[in-house]
Amino acid sequence: MAGCDILVSGTGGFAARIAFDIAATADEPVAVVIAGRNRERLNWLRTAANARAALFGKKARFTTHAVDLLAPNASEEMLAATGPRIVVQAASIQTSQVIAQSGNAWTQLVAEGGLSATAVFQALLSWRVAAAITRSGRAVTLVNCGFPDVVNGMIKAMGHDVACGMGNVAILSNVFAGSAATPPGAEVKVLAHYQNLAAWRRRPEERGGRAPRVWLDGAEIADVYARFADIQLTPEPVIEISGASGVPMLLAMASGRVWHGHVPGPNGLPGGYPVRLTTDGVLELDLPAGLSEAEAVAWNASFEAQNGLVVSPEGRIGFTGILGARLGEHLPALREGFAVRDLEAVCEELLRLRDRLMGQPQS
């Protein structure tokens, strides 16, 4: 069995950003495999990533592995063929671009009910990869990039380990750190759920609702919207930040170094947190003084409890708020939720609903 340090599963824009930024920043040798089913795209990503490493004089080396993750036993075969220490699962059957799309009944449902309408789609491939890692019995670190604030809790409920995700809270922590409103060198700590991102896609005068919690050098900011009015995100996914945000962590994981930063869904928790990576590869919460883990988790969990998708301690998934009402109009059985073990069957049902609604104009 061949072996690599990092396996990036996926060939879309998010996976490309990860690979290209590894290529531009890896100061220590790191072997990366990019996996996906589009061979022409794989060839380009390998070519471009190796060219970037040469261009910047860095020590990353990229190869590829062709795989269709929807095929039977594909996850097991991919792991056996590549032998990764770290798996970055960035493949999904639902593009994140849905947040910037409109014009049909499906995009309208997502806009009104929230991105958790896509959580089951985001979970499918990541769950299969996580299950394959568990069955392999090998010590492989899983980083799930598909809607980690919510999906990582689903993966844990299915009995599998997941280290964390990328983006979301790390988008906000890094834009706040780069803001003119932050003193140079100040320690920035952010508690944020993915739902907090929407306000920063609007103009400053239009922002409102619950803001992320932000601490600068240990002092919590009273009015986050006013303090960081200079920050502006794009309507579409900000891959230039989100895809890049996990790269320093991945390189630290690969080389066994300590790292401090922010991630969504650490160890299956809801939402995003400040964390530290220990030399033995363990991610621990690194909360501001005076903020307990129970308080931080409850704050993040409250978003999906109000509107979204929640996972009970018994492993039952339920839809809440506007999203629950909208889905219930089309699929009444989902009003009662479903057992996490039924994920595949529910995914098929939701895919049929998505296909039908995409063929209907928005009302």
UniProtKB/TrEMBL annotation:
Q: Which InterPro entries match?
A: NAD(P)-bd_dom_sf
Q: Please give the Gene3D superfamilies that the UniProt record associates with this protein.
A: NAD(P)-binding Rossmann-like Domain
Q: What is this protein called?
A: Saccharopine dehydrogenase NADP binding domain-containing protein
